[in-house]
Each structure stands twice: as structure tokens, then as C-alpha cells.
Specification:
The complex is a heterodimer of chains A (about 120) and B (about 110). Chain A has strands spanning about 5, 10-15, 20-25, 30-35, 45-50, 65-70, 75-80, 90-95, 105-110, 110-115. By secondary structure, chain A is mostly beta strands. Chain A is globular, with a radius of gyration of 14 Å. Chain A starts with a strand and ends with a strand. Chain B is an all-beta fold. Helices cover about 0% and strands about 60% of the residues of chain B. In chain B, strands 2, 4, 5, 9, 10 and 11 form a six-stranded mixed β-sheet that branches. In chain B, a hairpin with a 5-residue loop joins strand 4 and strand 5. The interface of A and B includes residues 59 and 105 of A.
Chain lengths: ~120, ~110
């Protein structure tokens, strides 16, 4: 696609429910990242996928959060038993390459605004 | 742990002014530094990427500089326009594409 696509753009869910957020990266990009932006907070790294390597999950805030990337393309971020503090904008980005010492530009999607009520 | 700070937090200028946004980072071992703009309710738009071996990058009215030894980057916007109003974010790439973001500078350019 022309850019990183995320769906849904907005999601309102009840506390305790599970949600799935989808990211479709730029075609041909091997690296994919998820970030979270909470109200009044900066951007927080969540998880990073690079090709077929094991993902870097070091930013996931709790075991209620998980993500997968199927076929090296589309990624889904799942939040189980949502809590009100999970309310934020979840941003996905992709870059052509990844790994250290690879000077590549990250392109972000428009984000999914999650509201837990 | 890398920490990125942006000053000022907010800036309001009349149209036509040249302005400088500042970004500082605590760990100089970065691979690159990227500047983004974010419009309200929108995602991030990449503006400039400066590699660790570079001193500056230019795109139109934007010029970004990087001084790794002092842990600083600046974004210079020439002849500002109301359409430049947005939040500007800098992000340091610490390796494995873990971008560490600053908290941003909210810019308002009035006609």
C-alpha cells in the first residue's frame, strides 16, 4: 500500500473486554513497530518485529498485551481484559529494514484511538 | 537509558518568523535521529532523518542539524506559515529501531 494503514481508527470498549488492533505496513517493509501515546504522555515503545526474527517484546506493559505478525506483513496487537489505563492512541510504524546500524526511516500510520469505558 | 528532551514545550509565533526547535538526548550512541510532525488526532509524518555520520539535512524550508558529541539536534523552520502549526517530535534511534521520543514542541503560527 501507499502508507501504513491501521484499523479501526477509533475503538470504544468496555472494561474487561478484549480488543484487536490491526496494522498493515508498507509493502516490502521488513520491520514493524507498535507504539502507544497516552494523553499528555510521550510515545512509548511496545514491540518490534524484524523479518522472521523473534520479536522484541521488551516494551509491552503487561502480559495482557500481545502481538503477532503473520506472513511478515500484517500485524495484530491484542489487549486482553482491557483496563481504563489502556486508553491511548496506538501507533504502528514500518521501515524498509531494521536492526542496528541500519539508517532507515520509520513511517507511521494514523493510529487507533482506544477508549476503555 | 536514553532520555530525549524537547524545548520549548510550546511556541507561538507570527507568520513569517524563522524559528528553532531544540532536541537533546542523554546517550550519544545513536544510529540516527528523526524529526516528525503530528497534527491533532493524526499519526506522525516523517520530516527529516539525520544519520549519525551526518551533520545536517534539509528539506524545503526545514533544516535539521545533529551534534552527537553534545547530544543535541535542532530543527530550523524558515519563513513559518500557519500550515506549520503542529506538534514537532524528535526521536533518537538507539538501535533495533527502538525510537526514543521526546515529548514534543507544540507550535502555533498565527496569520
Amino acid at each position: 500500500g501507499a502508507g501504513v494503514s491501521q484499523s479501526p481508527s477509533n475503538k470504544v470498549t468496555e472494561k474487561g473486554k478484549d480488543v484487536e488492533l490491526r496494522c498493515d505496513p508498507i509493502s516490502g517493509h521488513t520491520a514493524l513497530y507498535w507504539y502507544r501515546q497516552s494523553l499528555g504522555q510521550g510515545l512509548e515503545f511496545l514491540i518490534y518485529f524484524q523479518g522472521n526474527s523473534a520479536p522484541d517484546k521488551s516494551g509491552l506493559p503487561s502480559d495482557r498485551f500481545s502481538a503477532e505478525r503473520t506472513g511478515g506483513s500484517v500485524s495484530t496487537l491484542t489487549i486482553q481484559r482491557t483496563q481504563q489505563e489502556d486508553s491511548a492512541v496506538y501507533l504502528c510504524a514500518s521501515s524498509r529494514f531494521g536492526g542496528p546500524n541500519m539508517n532507515t526511516e520509520a513511517f507511521f500510520g494514523q493510529g487507533t484511538r482506544l477508549t476503555v469505558v | 537509558k536514553q532520555e530525549v528532551t524537547q524545548i520549548p514545550a510550546a511556541l507561538s509565533v507570527p507568520e513569517g518568523e524563522n524559528l528553532v526547535l531544540n532536541c537533546s538526548f542523554t546517550d550519544s550512541a545513536i544510529y540516527n535521529l528523526q524529526w516528525f510532525r503530528q497534527d491533532p488526532g493524526k499519526g506522525l509524518t516523517s520530516l527529516l532523518l539525520i544519520q549519525s555520520s551526518q551533520r545536517e539535512q534539509t528539506s524545503g524550508r526545514l533544516n535539521a542539524s545533529l551534534d552527537k558529541s553534545s547530544g543535541r539536534s535542532t530543527l530550523y523552520i524558515a519563513a513559518s506559515q500557519p500550515g506549520d502549526s503542529a506538534t514537532y517530535l524528535c526521536a533518537a534511534n538507539t538501535g533495533f529501531q527502538k525510537l526514543v521520543f521526546g515529548t514534543g514542541t507544540r507550535l502555533l503560527v498565527s496569520p
